[in-house]
Amino acid sequence: MAGMAFDPIYETALVRHGEAALEARLPVPRTPAELAATTDDRYLSAMSRRSFRAGLRHSLVDARWPAFEEVFAGFDPERLAVLPDEEIERLLADRRIIRHLGKIRAVRGNARAMLEITAQHGGFGSWLAAWPVTEIVDLWAEISRRFSQMGGRSAPYFLRMVGKDTFVLTGAVVKALNGFGVWRGEPRTRGDRRAVQAIFNRWHEETGRPLCQLSQILAMSVD
After folding, report:
1. For residues 16 and 207, is the Cβ–Cβ distance under 8 A?
2. Burial group, residue 189, by CB count within 10 angstroms (0-12, 13-18, 19+)
3. What distance in Å separates the CA atoms of residue 212 and residue 167, rounded to the nearest whole number?
4. How far apart are CA 205 and CA 221, in angstroms?
5. Which whole-number Å values give the CA distances from 60 to 21, 53, 65, in the listed order?
6. Any residues with CB less than 8 A from the CB of 95 and at least 6 apart, and which?
7. From CA 195, how far away is CA 221, in angstroms rounded?
8. SS3 content of the chain, % helix, strand, coil (to 5)
9. Which of 4, 100, 119, 187 is most solvent-facing, going by the fewest CB within 10 Å?
């Protein structure tokens, strides 16, 4: 079953939701040009939002995000990269934001890491745009390695937020992979994730759909 076609999965999702409802929920990734044109401050904002969302209700974080934008100076990496420790202590006392020392410090560290990539590639968005989606799990690993608070599913969720094409191994997606017999258990290791990537790559070639849509259809086939 590991080599099964995607059509039976799509048909199962159709039966559960109907074509109009299914297609309406499918995300559309941004083009490489759109990714490259996005400024670093927007990527740092999205990365920070993903970090603060982890373990909290997304609605709680999102409701406060305008205050975060103000407090963190629009997430300008050059300003935040040189944030002194005294300013971090001040931010920790600011009731307008969620006061979590590790995540506040991560904003400064991630600003520095982003500037390093920008210096090498002419922009963080250019780096994302150039990364082949057929090796997206390696980009997850690279983001987790280079940036703080980006472990677990945070890297693929961040990529989904900014429009870089990726699948996400949510509980529903893993359940579908298991249910259709194309994978057994949880893809825990990097080797496992690369093997699952190969499955998605084959479906991408077969259907012409981006990875994010394949992922969503899988989830909707069981949920």
Report:
1. no
2. exposed
3. 5
4. 20
5. 27, 8, 9
6. none
7. 21
8. 70, 0, 30
9. 119
From the centroid of its chain, how far is CA 94?
Answer: 28
Query: pLDDT digits over 37-64, tens only?
Result: 999 999 999 999 999 999 899 999 999 9
Q: Which residues of 48-69 are buried (b: 16+ CB within 10 A; e: fewer)?
A: bbbbbbbeeeeeebeebeeebe
The DSSP line for 151-182 is: TTTHHHHHHHHHT-------HHHHHHHHHTTS
Let me know how long the chain is: 223
CA–CA dist 200, 216 (Å, integer): 12
CA dihedral 138, 45, 38, 126 (to 10 degrees): -30
pLDDT band at 164 (very low <50, low <70, confident <90, very high): very high
* Tokens 């991560």, residue located: 106
- What is the model's pLDDT at position 3? 76
Secondary structure (3-state) at 188: coil
Residue with tokens 């429009």: 163
Tell me the domain boundaries of the chain: 7-29+167-222, 32-130
- Model confidence pLDDT, tens digit, residues 194-223: 999 999 999 999 999 999 999 999 999 998
User: What tokens does 165 get?
Assistant: 């094409």
Domain 32-130 has what CATH class? mainly alpha
Contact 163, 34 (CB under 8 A): yes
108 near 80, Cβ under 8 Å? Answer: yes
Compute CA 72 distance to the chain's CA centroid, rounded to the nearest angstrom: 21
pLDDT, position 4? 87
